[in-house]
Specification:
Elements lengths: L13 H9 L4 E5 L3 H14 L2 E5 L2 H10 L3 E7 L8 H11 L6 E6 L5 H9 L4 E4 L4 H26 L7 E2 H18 L3 E8 L2 H8 L1 H18 L5 E6 L2 E7 L3 H16 L3 E3 L2 E3 L3 E8 L4 H17 L5 E2 L1
Parallel strand pairs: 1-2, 1-3, 3-4, 4-5, 6-8, 12-13
Antiparallel strand pairs: 7-9, 7-12, 8-9, 10-11
Helix pairs in contact: 8-9, 9-10
The chain binds 3'-deoxy-guanosine-5'-triphosphate and magnesium ion (MG) (3 copies).
Length: 317
């Protein structure tokens, strides 16, 4: 199926190989009724630096995709084992794996009419390639599919990360808290939602400037991260205001954790080039469960307001 193209073997795959090194490794899944073809293709992918799994039919393919979350690309020949054709398998895969998460490259056999290639695209393949093809063509098509997916992944991450502190942002708080609320409602447990606001932060900016103000925000973010578990939801909502959502804790345990946080921040001054700034925060803690995060944030905010009015550097629950 490969047209031999001497003397150009390695040059063209440099770009893909660079990507592969940059992003650790990429795993592909080859779906084809012919074992000979699968092995040939696997050997080719290996030359580009791609590891691959193989499958001959629809059922195995769907199972492999479910058990191997690291598969980023599926190459599907029109001819696969079983009752259905490769194009129909694309449709089945797309019911569970959108084209923004998993790349599919359709392979149409030599001599078939161009309508089949179009069918691959209609059913949700990202691209197709027609046999016979040269390695360079295969490499470039794969690379383009992966590049688009990579860009989408990057943009999706950018959309939920605050660039200053690298904490999750308000948008992430809204989406990720949904799952936590759902689980808490089902298991009849409670959430701890804390609003954390730096005290007199405007004075920090006014006295030391915005650059140091930004540094202080990063310091507080670090302390926040170190004080909680990896699975806890910690966000910067905006300005000098942070939010933490914890699941499945008693009120007493939650108070202990946030009181500990408050003390840790109080006893960790910002220090840099002779500048030393004492930082304190006020915390409003809501413990319970509501149907949406906004309601819980409003209740936590009321407590925060009380903490501010009662002299700051306090936890109110
Ligand atoms: P309070 O104790 O009542 O919370 O007083 P405060 O001064 O902290 O609150 P206020 O809302 O009056 O001011 C918040 C300040 O946070 C104002 C703004 O300059 C600063 N700020 C907001 N976002 C940023 C940022 O990204 N970087 C820096 N350096 N400052 C920020
Ligand atoms: Mg403040
Ligand atoms: Mg204020
Ligand atoms: Mg504020």
């Amino acid at each position: 199926y490969l047209i031999k193209k001497p003397n150009s073997d390695l040059l063209y795959s440099t770009r893909l190989i660079e990507r592969v090194y940059k992003n650790s490794f990429i795993k592909a899944l080859i779906v084809d009724g012919s074992e000979t073809f699968r092995n040939k293709l696997a050997k080719n992918l290996k030359q580009f630096g791609l590891d691959s799994l193989q499958s001959s039919d629809a059922k195995t393919t769907l199972e492999l995709l479910k058990t191997h979350a690291d598969i980023q690309l599926v190459l599907i020949d029109l001819d696969i084992s079983g009752d259905i054709q490769g194009v129909e398998l694309v449709e089945d895969i797309r019911e569970q794996f959108p084209s923004t998460m998993l790349g599919i490259l359709g392979i149409t056999p030599h001599g078939y009419n161009s309508q089949l290639s179009i069918e691959f695209l209609k059913k949700g393949a990202n691209d197709f390639i027609t046999k016979p093809f040269v390695k360079e063509q295969l490499n470039l098509r794969i690379m383009q599919v992966l590049e688009v997916l990579d860009t989408i992944k990057e943009k999706n991450i950018e959309a939920i990360i605050d660039p200053l502190t690298q904490l999750k942002n308000r948008r992430a708080l809204e989406t990720e808290s949904k799952q936590m609320i759902q689980s808490a409602l089902i298991s009849n447990s409670r959430l701890s939602v804390a609003m954390i606001d730096i005290d007199h932060f405007k004075q920090v900016n006014d006295t030391y400037g915005h650059i140091i103000g930004d540094d202080v925000l990063r310091l507080i973010s670090q302390i926040l991260k170190s004080n909680f578990r990896k699975k806890d939801l910690i966000t910067r909502n905006g300005g000098e205001e942070f939010c933490v959502v914890l699941d499945d804790l008693s009120l007493k345990k939650a108070i202990d954790l946030f009181e500990n946080l408050r003390q840790k921040i109080e006893s960790t001054p910002y220090e840099n080039e002779g500048v030393k700034i004492n930082i304190t925060v006020s915390i409003g803690l809501f413990h319970g469960i509501q149907n949406d995060i906004t309601s819980m944030l409003i209740l936590a905010d009321e407590k925060l307001y009380m903490a501010k009015n009662n002299g700051r550097n306090k936890l109110v629950s």
